[in-house]
Amino acid sequence: MKIGRQEFDLLRGQIYSLCGLIIPDGKEYLIEHRLQSLFQSSGCGSWQDFYKLMCCGDKAFLDEVISAVSTNETSFFRDTHPFNSIRNKILPPLVRARRSGRKIRIWCAASSTGQEPYSLAMLIHEFCRSTNGLKPDAGDFSILATDISSRVLEKATAGRFSEMELSRGLPDRFRKYFKQHHRSWVLDDEIRTLVSFRKFNLLDSFKTLGKFDFVMCRNVLIYFDDKTKIDVVHRIHSLLPEQGYLMLGGTETLAGYTDRFVAERSGPVIVYRKNE
User: Fold this and answer.
1) Greater model confidence, 63 or 133
2) How far is CA 200 from the centre of its chain?
3) Contacts of 257-260 spanning 24+ positions with Cβ under 8 A
C-alpha cells in the first residue's frame, strides 16, 4: 500500500522521536519497503492505522519498527585504514596510560551484527602478541558493543557468520579465529569474551554505560540532524578521560560543530582527541 504525504510525515516524525533517525523528503519508498512486512503482519488497514499502532505499540513492536528502518550495513575491518590507525596511534597510548588493575574500556556504538567490535577484538589480540616493550594482555581490554536493534544483537552475540560475511573485508590472517560449523563460521571464544553486547538507544542517557578510554561511533551521526549529532558527541566527550579518543566514519566530521575535540590525522584517517 502506498504511503500518502501526511502518513509519511507522521511516520517519520514518530521514528525520529524513537531513535533520532532522519528520513529525508521524498523517501516514502524507503518506509514502504522497510516496513511493508510489519505492516502486513500487523493487520492494519492503512498507514494511518500503522502510525496509531506505533504511538501505542508495545516495546517489542517498536523494536521491530526500529530494526526495520535502521541501516545495518557493516563488514569486518570496514574501510581498513581506521583499524590501522587504531593499531598504531590509539592502542599504544591507551596501554601506556592504563593503571594497574584497571581495564581499557572501549565502546562500539551502533555495532550492528558484530563485525566491527569483533574486528577490534581480533586486532587487540594481534597487537598484544606482536608489541614489544609495552607487554599488554588481551585481558586488559573490555569492549562494549551496543545497538538499538535486538534482532542484530542476537546475531552478533551468536558470533556465527556466513562465508560471504567473512569474505567481505576479513584479512586471511584473521581466519584462524574462526571454525567452520556446517555452512557457518563460528568465532573463537577467546575473541568473543572480549566483547559484551547490550541494547542501547543513543538518545538515552549515557550515565549507565560508565567511562571509556576510546569510543567508536562510525557511520552513525550521518543519520542524525545537527542538534542530535552535537548532543551525542558532547555526551561522548563526558565519558572520556583526558587524552581519550573518538573515531567517526570516513564521511563524518566534527569541523564546525564543536571545539570539545581536537582533530588529529593518522594517515588517511582523522581521529578526535578529547580537548580539555
Assistant:
1) 63
2) 10
3) 257/226, 257/229, 257/230, 257/233, 258/230, 258/233, 258/234, 260/233, 260/234
pLDDT tens digits, residue range 56-68?
A: 878 889 999 998 9
Look up residue 108 and give its three cell numbers: 562500539
239 contacts: CB under 8 Å, gap ≥ 6: 107, 206, 209, 210, 211, 212, 215
Overall pTM > 0.70 = yes
Residue 100 confidence (pLDDT)? 78
Contacts (Cβ under 8 Å, ≥6 apart) of 178? 161, 166, 185, 186, 187, 188
- Mapping DSSP to helix (H, G, I), strand (E, B) and coil, where does residue 213 land? coil
Question: pLDDT value at position 60?
Answer: 87
Nearest to 70 by CA among 106, 25, 34: 34
Q: What is the secondary structure of 77-140 as a DSSP string?
A: TTTSHHHHHIIIIIHHHHHHHPPTT--EEEEESS-TTTHHHHHHHHHHHHHHHH-SSS---GGG
Sign of CA pseudo-dihedral 115, 180, 164, 162:
negative
Distance (Å, whole) CA 114 – CA 181: 18
Instruction: State the pLDDT confidence band at 29, using cuts at 50, 70 and 90.
Output: very high
